[in-house]
Amino acid sequence: MNTADLAARLGCVGRTWTPQQRLHPGNVAWASARGDGSTNPDIALTWGNPLWGFADIWLPPSGARPASVTLHLAPGMTAHQLAIAIDEVLRVAPHVTAEVSLQQTELVDALSGRGFHRADGPWFAQLWRGLADLSDLRAHHLPDGYSIRRVRRDELVERVEVHRRCWDPVRIKQLLNLPVTGEEPGSSYSIEKHLAVIGSPVYREELDLVVEAADGSLAAFALGWLDPEAGSILFEPVGTVPAHAERGLARALCAELLRVARDLGATQAVVGPRGDGAYRVPRKVYEGLGMREVAQFVSFTNR
Q1: Which of 2, 162, 199, 250 has its CA 20 to 30 A from that of 150?
Q2: What DSSP assignment string belongs to 34-62?
Q3: How does the average pLDDT of the chain come out, rounded?
Q4: Domain boundaries, position 31
């Protein structure tokens, strides 16, 4: 994605952002760097000038499965505008699955009117809190031997490696109680991807935090994305190295991230963990920081 396209998408998402909207500018930046593990889409569609909607479409290799679509249509669009966008998606990919916010009722209604229904499978919760009073976060502190700091510019390799260890596909399968075959690839996160993250116009090095262990290694990390217009920060992603898990590192790290974001002008924070029961741990971590559910993001399909 070129700089102009990214800027247009960031503006489109930022102009209408509320905690009930599925995409935050941070999601757009993270996905554009392919930090989320996605590949470049097969088809990209846009609507409006200035932009009021866009879609990325990944076509299945055999056509047997629905195409996967990331769809953003700004809240407040008319039924006619929503119909134009959805119909254009269906012209290039007749069978699709897209994740939407249940709170964006006009979009849900437009999809339902074209034969879409809620798909089986995981869904995500949007958790939110205000940042006016952070006194409750004093209870979240690190164990002895650990410290929180901003990532240094001379430790790019270490910063990428801590992400890869936290989000290793085998580990994620184990956390989800899925079978491990032994043929899983390693994490796709790379120096090139992190450089793209750093190059994003909404990246702030003050919000790229790590936990350092007593031996100097990185034990956890958390990346925050600040949208100054809405005064909102998104956590995406957060991780703890397996050897340092279950010590409260992620919660203490995110508590510090909230304090830093507040000092930078943020007034609210959001994060989107799994909402279903298959993987409860991240949600419990964030709820322990006083965050509560304000929206549900679910998949709709016409297959």
Answers
A1: 2
A2: TTTSPPPPSEEEEETTTT-EEEEEE--SS
A3: 95
A4: 3-123
